[in-house]
Amino acid sequence: MDPYGLRRVVSPPGVLPQRASRLDPTLPLGDDELSIDVEALNVDAAAFRQIESAVGREPAAIAAEITRIVAARGKLQNPVTGSGGMLIGRVRAVGARHPAAGTLAPGARVATLVSLTLTPLRLDAITAVRPEIDRVECRGLAILFATGLWARLPDDLPENLALAALDVCGAPALVARHTRPGQRVLVLGAGKSGALVAVQARQQLGATGRVVAADRSPAALAALTALGVCDETLELDATDAVGALARVEAAGGRFDLVVNCASVAGTEMTALLAVKDGGTVIFFSMATSFTGAALGAEGVGRDATLVIGNGYVPGHADLTLELLRRHPRLRALFEQRYAR
Asked: What's the whole-number average pLDDT of the chain?
C-alpha cells in the first residue's frame, strides 16, 4: 500500500507529494489509487490572481501559463503562492484496494476535496478559461491516493453551484468549531469563503453575537449585506493595517474571532490588529504568509491563537452543502456570482 502517493514523487526524493517539485501522473494506476477524467479545475483564488498579475487577463495567456505549470510539475501548484485548487470530473477507474472500491463506480461525477498541489495531473487540453469564477474547463487525467478526499456531486444542486461551494468548504466548518454564542466575529474578505463564513457564524452566534464583514469592494459588501447575516460591514483595504485598525476601533473595537478570507497578500497584520488578546485568528486565505503572521503577532504583542485554515474538517462538505440548501439568499448569491 502507498496511501500517500510516494511512488509518484519524481523530485526531490523522499518527500510527500505536496512538497514535491514534480509528480508523475503517467504511472499505471495503483491498486490503492483512483483515476478521474478531469472536466474542470477550480483554481485557488490567490493562485489565479497571481497568474493574472503575471500574464494578464487574456484567457489564452492564462491557459498557456496553467498548461506550463502542469507540464513542468505534474500537478497544478502555483510556484509563487504555493497553492492550487480542486477539480471535478468523472471517475475512470477505482483500484481494488482503494477505500472507495465497491462504493464508487466508474462514471460517477465527483469533486476532489484535496489540493491540486498534491494531485498528479495530466492536462490534454484547456477548452475554456473563466476568470470571473477562477475556473478552467479542460480535458485531462488526475489521480487520487487512498488518503485523497472526494465528494460525490449531489443530485439536488446544480454542478457548478456545488463545485463553487465545495472549493472552500473547510472555511465554514472551521468557524463552526471556533465560535460560540455572544462573540464578535470579523470576516475579512467578502468572496465565496467569506459569504459561507458569515452565514455559518450568524448561525453559531445567535442573537447575542455580532458578525461584521470587511472588504475593499462595495459591491461585495452589498452582496453580503443582502444575505441578512451581517450586523455591519466595513469598507477597508486589508493590506493597510493602520487604516484598517482605525475602522475596527470605530466599529466597536477588537474582535473575539477574525477569519481572514482575503485573496490578496499582505493582510496578516490587519487580522492580528483586529483581534482581542486571548482571541483567535483563522487564516483561511492561501495568500497568507504564515511566517509573517507568527512574527507579526510577536511584533505587536498580540496574545492570540493563530489557526491555519486546514481545508479538511470532518463533515465539511456536507455542512457546506446544507448551508446552501437552508439559505436561499446564499444559494442565490452563489448562483449569480460563482456558479455561472
From this structure: 95
